[in-house]
Design brief:
2 copies of one chain form a homodimer.
Chain A (H helix, E strand, L loop, with lengths): L25 H21 L6 H8 L3 H7 L3 H25 L5 H16 L2 H14 L3 H25 L5 H21 L13 H13 L6
Helix pairs in contact in A: 1-2, 1-4, 1-6, 2-3, 4-7, 6-7, 7-8
Chain A binds a DNA duplex (30 and 30 nucleotides) through helix 1 and helix 3.
Chain lengths: 221, 221
DNA sequence: ACAGATATAGGTCATATGACCTAATTCTTC
DNA sequence: GAAGAATTAGGTCATATGACCTATATCTGT
C-alpha cells in the first residue's frame, strides 16, 4: 500500500532523527503516552485492520505530523504500545505474587482475584485477543508475548513452589503453563470478553469452588 | 473505503440475483467450496486485515467476477466461511462425545485426545484466534461463535453427566464452561498455536496426568 | 536570547480496496 | 438446441492508507 519502503538509508537528514517515541521533555513524554493510549483505544475498538495512523492521531487529538515525529511508522506505534502494556502487566503479575503476604493458599486466592478483576476490563481482553491473532504474522508481537507469558508463568511457578513443594521444578513449570492457559481461555468468556454471550452465569463462583476443593483436601494441585 | 453502500434497493435487476454462495449445479457448489477454502487460507495467513476479495479470488484460481457472483460482498464470504467451518466443527464435537463407546472415563480420554489432535493444526488455532478478535466488531461472528460454543459445551455437559451424575445440572453446565475455556486457552500455546514458543514442553503429558488423577481417586471433577 | 525539541497544517504519491458494472463465453440441463 | 447457470476479463469510481516531505510556529531548558 505505501509508496516507499526506503529503510533509513545511510545518509541521514542533517536535522534530528527522532524515533521510537523518544521524548526529551516532560511534555513530550506525556504526549507519547496519550498517543499510545489512543492507539490502544483504536486497536481495541476497530481491530488491527482499522488501526491507521490518521485514526490514532485524530483520537489522540494530535496532528499526523506530530504522531509521525514520535513514531515514524505504524510498526513503531504497535511496537511501543506492546512494550508499554506488557511491561506494566508483567509488573502487576509479580506485584500480586510477592505482595499480599499470608499463607500460600491465601496468596493464591488473592492472585486469582486479581486476574479475574483484570479480565473484567473489556479493553484488556480485547487487546489480548488482537495480540493473539497478530502474533502469527508479526514476529515482534510473538516475541513480546513470549516474554510476557514467560514472566506470567514464572509468577505462577513461584506460587506453586510454596503450595506444593513436593512437585519437581519441571512439573511445576508445566502445571503453571496449564494454569496460565486456563486463565487466558477464561478471558475469552468472562465479563469483559467478547464472548460473554457464549458463557454461563456463575463461572467465577464455580472456579472458586473448584479452587477450594483443590486447596483444602490435599496439596495435589 | 468502498464507494457505494447501496443496500439492495427495492428495484432489483431483471436478471438473476445470486447470493450467499448459492450454487445450482454441482460444479458451482464445488467452486464455492474452493473459494471458501481459499478464504480460509488467506484469513489464516494474512489475518482479517489482509483478507481481500481479490486475494481470495487469486488464491482460489477464480476470477474476481466469479467470486462476486457467488459472494457479492466481503461479509458474505466471511459469513459463509464461518457457517461452514463452525458447523463442521460442531459435528465433530458431537461425533466424539457420542461415538467411541466404552466407559465414561475412557470416552473422556478419547474426547481429550481428539481435541488435542485438532489443536495440532495451526490452521484451526489461528482461525479461532482471528474469530475471537473479530467477534468484538462483528455481531454476526459473535453470534456464530456463541452457537458453536453452546454446542461444544453441551457435548462436554453430556460427558460430565456420565462421569459425575451427582452434580446438579447447573454446576455441570458451569464446569463444562470452565473446561471449554481451558481447552481454548490451551490452543493458544499448543503445537499449532502461534504462541507455542511461549509454551513449555510436555504440556499435553502433564494434562493427561492431571486428568488421570482427577478420574481415578474420586468422581469429584 | 539561543538551540534544539515539539508541534501544526498541509501537500504528494503509489498502491489497494470494496462495490459495482458489462459484454462475451462456456457449461449443464432439459 | 435453447434457457439459464457459471465464468471470464476487463473497466470505473470513491475512498483510504502508509510513507514521505516541508515550512512555519511554539515551547523548553540553559
Amino acid at each position: 500500500m505505501p509508496r516507499r519502503a526506503s529503510k533509513k538509508v545511510a545518509g541521514e537528514l542533517p536535522s534530528s532523527n527522532p524515533r521510537e517515541g523518544t521524548a526529551v521533555h516532560a511534555k513530550g513524554t506525556e504526549r507519547v503516552g496519550h498517543i499510545l493510549d489512543a492507539a490502544m483505544d483504536v486497536l481495541v475498538q476497530d481491530g488491527y485492520a482499522g488501526l491507521s495512523l490518521r485514526g490514532v492521531a485524530q483520537r489522540a487529538g494530535v496532528s499526523l505530523g506530530n504522531l509521525q515525529y514520535y513514531f515514524p511508522t505504524k510498526q513503531d506505534v504497535v511496537r511501543a504500545l506492546l512494550a508499554r502494556y506488557l511491561e506494566q502487566a508483567l509488573q502487576r503479575v509479580h506485584a500480586r505474587v510477592e505482595g499480599g503476604g499470608g499463607e500460600p493458599a491465601q496468596r493464591l486466592r488473592h492472585a486469582v482475584d486479581a486476574v479475574l478483576e483484570d479480565q473484567d476490563s473489556p479493553q484488556a481482553c480485547q487487546f489480548f485477543a488482537e495480540l493473539w491473532a497478530l502474533a502469527a504474522r508479526d514476529a515482534m508481537v510473538a516475541d513480546a508475548l513470549a516474554v510476557f507469558y514467560a514472566g506470567y508463568r514464572a509468577g505462577v511457578v513461584e506460587l506453586l513452589r510454596q503450595l506444593c513443594p513436593d512437585l519437581t521444578p519441571a512439573r511445576r513449570e508445566r502445571r503453571a503453563a496449564l494454569l496460565v492457559a486456563f486463565f487466558e481461555g477464561l478471558s475469552l468468556f468472562r465479563g469483559g470478553g467478547n464472548l460473554r454471550a457464549a458463557s454461563v452465569p456463575g463461572l467465577e463462583q464455580e472456579l472458586r469452588v473448584l479452587l477450594e476443593q483443590v486447596l483444602l483436601p490435599q496439596p495435589a494441585l
